[in-house]
Design brief:
With about 110 residues, the protein is mostly helical. It has one domain: Peroxidase, domain 2 (Orthogonal Bundle), CATH 1.10.420. It has helices at about 5-15, 35-40, 50, 60-70, 70-85. Helix 2 crosses helix 4 and helix 4 packs across helix 5 (about 70-85). The termini are far apart. This is Putative class III secretory plant peroxidase family protein. Its cofactor is heme b; Ca(2+). Belongs to the peroxidase family. It catalyses: 2 a phenolic donor + H2O2 = 2 a phenolic radical donor + 2 H2O.
């Protein structure tokens, strides 16, 4: 984590008077879906270890770099992914996953 970011995050968390520990994941564009997330990852100002891990392999690091430099590519890839997910059919009835078989383990 970027040291300056870490210090400011600690300060922000200690000032959080609601005691819920919630801080925005993206401090720059909080209410917008954009490439800022990838810019945060690239500058080591992302909140989670899982975010930083995108920089540990060549393939994912290149993806971070591409989206940072080409916001329109991110936008188009996101649209394509959402369309693809929308075509996934939900399995129901005997085709779906049966959760009942584990109910004894979880006291349901």
């Amino acid at each position: 984590m970027n040291q300056t970011f870490g210090v400011s995050l600690r300060k922000l968390c200690s000032q959080n008077t609601t005691n819920d520990g919630v801080v925005p994941e993206d401090f720059v564009t909080q209410d917008k879906l954009d490439v800022q997330y990838y810019k945060n990852v690239a500058s080591l100002t992302a909140l989670f270890f899982s975010d930083w891990s995108l920089l540990t392999s060549n393939e994912t690091r290149k993806q971070v770099e591409t989206y940072t430099k080409e916001p329109e590519k991110f936008k188009q890839d996101f649209i394509n992914a959402m369309v693809k997910m929308g075509s996934i059919e939900v399995l129901t009835g005997s085709q779906g996953e049966n959760k009942r078989k584990n109910e004894d383990k979880f006291d349901i």
